[in-house]
Amino acid sequence: MIVRIMGEGQVRLDDGHLTELNKLDDELLSEMESGDEPGFRRTLSALLESVRRLGAPLPDDALEPSELILPSPDATLEEVREMLSDEGLIPG
Questions:
Q1: Which of 31, 55, 56, 79 gives the lowest tally of CB atoms within 10 Å of its CB?
Q2: Rounded Cα gap, residues 87 and 84, in angstroms
Q3: Cα–Cα distance list, 18 to 24, 47, 55, 70, 75 (Å)
Q4: What does the pLDDT look like over 30-51, one tens digit per residue?
Q5: pTM across the whole model
């Protein structure tokens, strides 16, 4: 799976990591619904760091279709809310 982190680039991520990422996505969704800004910041940071750690960066000149687009690290709670589907940022 190709994942784009807005403002950073793309990484190739094995589908086997989706379970771990979905746990963070569920936490993020819960924090957004409750308006927990500090929790939202912490969990968004952890989600993006997990994608960076588990994925392999694609070269800067590569432009693959992204199957998943994640917000930038400095995205606001409202900006992330606009990106959400019924399943959060990460489907599944």
A1: 56
A2: 7
A3: 10, 11, 11, 13, 22
A4: 998 899 999 999 999 999 999 9
A5: 0.89
